[in-house]
Amino acid sequence: MSDKNKYYDGTKLLSMSDINGEKPEIYICTGNRTAGKTVYFNRLCVNRFIKNNEKFMIIYRFNYEVDNVAEKFFKDIGGLFFPDDNMESSRKEKGLYHELYLNGVSCGYAISLNSADQIKKNAHLFSDTCRMIFDEFQSETNNYCKDEIQKLFSIHTSVARGQGKQVRYVPVYMISNNVSLINPYFVTMGISNRLNNDTKFLRGEGFVLEQCYNESAANAQQQSGFNKAFSSSNYAAYSTQGVYLIDNIAFIEKPKGRNHYLCTLKCNGVCYGVREFIDLGIVYCDDKPDMSHPMKISVTTDDHNTNYVMLRQFNSIISGMRYYFEKGCFRFKNLKCKETILTAISY
Known about the structure:
Low-confidence stretches: 235-241
Mean pLDDT: 87
Largest sheet: 9 strands, mixed
Distance between the termini: 50 Å
CATH architecture of the largest domain: 3-Layer(aba) Sandwich
Number of domains: 2
Strand content: 15-25%
Radius of gyration: 23 Å
Number of helices: 12
Helix content: 25-40%
Order of helices and strands: HHEHEHEEEHEHEHEEHHHEEEEEHEH
Strand order of the largest sheet: 3-4-5-2-6-7-1-9-8
CATH topology of the largest domain: Rossmann fold
CATH class of the largest domain: Alpha Beta
């Protein structure tokens, strides 16, 4: 296999139009580990600065992650593609952000999502940013910022203005290993219900997505003695086979036959319907609730109001759901419905 085919190439993704035939502003790339996704986009940002003097912004989740950004960002690509260049960073505005320098010349910035409010107040400092890169946008430990989507939206809005324009085109490259189909970004952008294991490219409103699989990287990991020792674990499959770490797509199907409505579950502001298929002995959850049914249960305290009773008041119903789930007698319309049931029965 040639070196060209051993590493990820985002040329196809970057050439795509969104679902409306327009130039997307969000480019999402997911895939198995060590496929070369991060190296490709980091190198792209540096090359665009060298050739066109276009600065870039690196997005992290938490402020402490910004420390040592020059080494984290440049170490791999520097040794591979820029051996004669040097990158350094300088802490600015009491740690609000770090400014990056390539051979002593300012080339970009590193910020954290948790600093969204302060970034908004200092937006003028970043008005020369031409592109943004957000690596590991899916968290393996589900450790997201509070209101993370809103914070990313706020930061992009703050950065994508200035230089005589109310709104500038500032593309965002979002990179991640396959972690969860119901991560907050996929849910918000309506990706979760459209994506499956066979999807290579997906177009949406303002975004395009690629699910890549690097066979060379997978084979190399599978030959590792360490990987062989843990070959039966879910994490090994996630790392080498391109499967999603957190999700199990078993029982995502709709049963057929007679059914009766059991209750409505409200979770994170969304209502779900729970039905029993009598002849099959199957309980099914979908996102089409019968709002006229009197049994309405709130899964979290945030969903509690006068029309919804708290989950703990209906232990018998929840115990019944847990029994059906443990016996493999639950079915779900999608992973979001499955997540809701898991949240309910583990309360």
